[in-house]
Amino acid sequence: MSDRARRAVVPRFIKLMLPTTQCRGDAMRLTLASAKRYTSMNLAPQRLGDSCVIFSKRVLRLGKLLNRHSSCSVCSGCVCSSCKVEKNVRLVSSDMKVTRRRLVFCSPSPCLGNAMAQNDPELSLRDNAGGVARFYRADYNSVSSRLTASGPVSSSMTWQKQLYPTTPYLKHQLCWSEPKHQRQAAPHVSNGSHRHKSRTLLVDRPSSSPAPPPLYPPVMLRRLALRSVQTTLRNARGLASASELWKNPRSSKFSMTKIVGTIGPVSEQLDMLQKLTNEGLRIMRINFSHAEYDEALLRVNNLRACRGVHAEGQAKFNLRAVLHDTKGPEIRTGKMLDGKKIRLEKGKSVVLTTDPAFEVQGTADKFYVTYQQLAETVKVGDTVLLSDGLIRLTCTAVGKGEITCEVENTEEIGNRKGVNLPGLIVELPALSEKDKRDLDWGVEHDIDFIAASFIRKASDVHEIRAFVAECIKKHWAHEPKYIAPKIISKVENLEGVQNFEEILEASDGIMCARGDLGVEVPAQKVLTYQKMMVDRCNAVGKPVIVATQMLESMQNNPRPTRAEVSDVGNAVLDGADCVMLSGESAQGKYPIESVATMNTVIKEADELLLHPTYRAKFQFDPPTSDVESAVSSAVKTANEMNAQLMIVLTATGYTARKVAKYKPTVPVMCFTTNLKVGRQLQIHRGLYPVVPDYLERRPTTAEAIAHAKKMGWLSSGDRVVVISGDKLSDDLGREIVMGVADVQ
């Protein structure tokens, strides 16, 4: 044994190996028996295919090694008969008995290195510092053996170094041994009543390199050694996904969580909207608190004029959706005298009145408020907030049609500023007259979603839905099957939080509007309410949007703060279907950079969501119908079989929405013939609607798979789960058909 030989602790079971060269696009392999190959004397290649995990592009799935393939003995890569090389290898066991085996290597590959170039008669396996054989600690085996060899082997693999900082679940340790005359006995690890020797792999260390200290204390190593093989295999997916090694073929283009972007003066032009959609914008929000009808029409037309493959359909069809955000019922101040700002001084008193005589004559002593029930609602000691919470008042007296308040902080206030009554129940209509005019315009122009502001109870949602139905009869009477816009309730006050369950049941989705909510409730409570809303929406399968100040600093800066990046990422990890940009894309200096940055953060967080630790947090309500039972089974099948894609054939979008409820780990391509259905599916996480421009009917399974393959979502050898849903009749209900296909 050479003095250059060094040893590393090798745990049982798992070796994650990615060859730098791929054999004609064949799947990479992660064999369960790989440790046996290196650490026991029974190294016959034909014994290595008993049980394995196939690393195919993005996913790991259980299976058998294909008969026409072999596995590289160094990197475990799949090699076919046309590019494999067999070499004689000298193996040394723990009792120093030397045996020779003929093993298979992939070529061309660093696995052979200089030895292959020199055509050495014997090739030895060794682990350099960059390593061709790095193992991950899972358990110890009773087998104790050593492997050494001679002959230089070069390796340029650096992926192990990338994996280490991001692998909290599978730990590894690489220890250098001392020279032969300084070596100590191999450590022992206690495991119940048995004592197992740790196995060692002899490796070389350059003479100039100092011996690094152990990465983990012995106690930690013992704990890691007791991990079960099942836990290791389950966590292998998360380990790979957390690194840059396990690349999703769609990740460079698409993200599972969707982006809603507010379009304003800086982003409403066609060329700008085209760039935003290319960067990942899927839903355009128009804020009717500020937008005029001509501006809104320009934005809608420009969005629908954008071209390119929009991830969901061909160039002929644009499936980006439009979200109509209402101004909502608000309480505001009147105008100040001469239209100038007034200054409220701390400690002084000010009167808030509902007398119309002061509507345009406000002063620092008295000004108008639009809420006619102000005196009946506010009591002595209650808090009144002005100008989005910048000014705090405390009620000291209540009179007829007016209240007297003490100013808590000095600040200026202008015309038509917002008034908040935190914690108080106010009697406001669900729709103001302006909202009704705006909604009538929106329905006429075929909007997809309505973001209803300041929803306080379920009856508000019912009132809006009834008004929208009237608008549909007015503008779309010639379309008997016209699809109504979905109502997304904005919860932005304490009363809405208290009545959240009934609001959720009455709505098609929820928007957590953290801006106004943060004015109504203490700032620390916004976190609690956001988590609650997202969890409840996930449980019942309704989409949820997290909004307000996601990347606020990017209105003026080209890069976000670290806290903003974490905010976006945590919203995705919570299970949000969409995250929203407001001023960043509407009036900021960097709208394109804002969307691109958000898309990048989303894709990183989407990868983390594949880990079992994060997925385990999702709690779904039990299936309430046979359809949900069938769909949940289909999603489970896709997850467990590690399908590359799910395909849903749907006419109304009902089946696709049920699929989205159970958070599939793979993208879901939804084929439909209705553009409105396709656009409304945009709001759901992981759903990618497709309306084939060459068909006037719903495609067959074979046509759908061919279309997905043409778009680059599938390739030969991939596995796909296909679901089709049809409504048979009112009596018979729906028929759900699921199938699993391998792409040819």
TrEMBL record:
Source organism (scientific name): Phytophthora fragariae
Swiss-Prot/TrEMBL cofactor(s): Mg(2+); K(+)
Region annotation Disordered: where it falls in the sequence: 181-216
Protein name per its UniProtKB record: Pyruvate kinase
Domain Pyruvate kinase barrel: 256-595
UniProt keyword Zinc present: no
Swiss-Prot/TrEMBL catalytic activity: pyruvate + ATP = phosphoenolpyruvate + ADP + H(+)
Keyword Transferase found: yes
NCBIfam families: PRK05826.1 (NF004491), PRK06354.1 (NF004978), pyruv_kin (TIGR01064)
Entries under SUPFAM superfamilies matching the protein: Phosphoenolpyruvate/pyruvate domain, PK beta-barrel domain-like, PK C-terminal domain-like
Domain Pyruvate kinase C-terminal: residue ranges: 628-728
Family to which the UniProt record says this protein belongs: Belongs to the pyruvate kinase family.
Keywords associated with the record: ATP-binding, Glycolysis, Kinase, Magnesium, Metal-binding, Nucleotide-binding, Pyruvate, Transferase
EC number per UniProt: 2.7.1.40
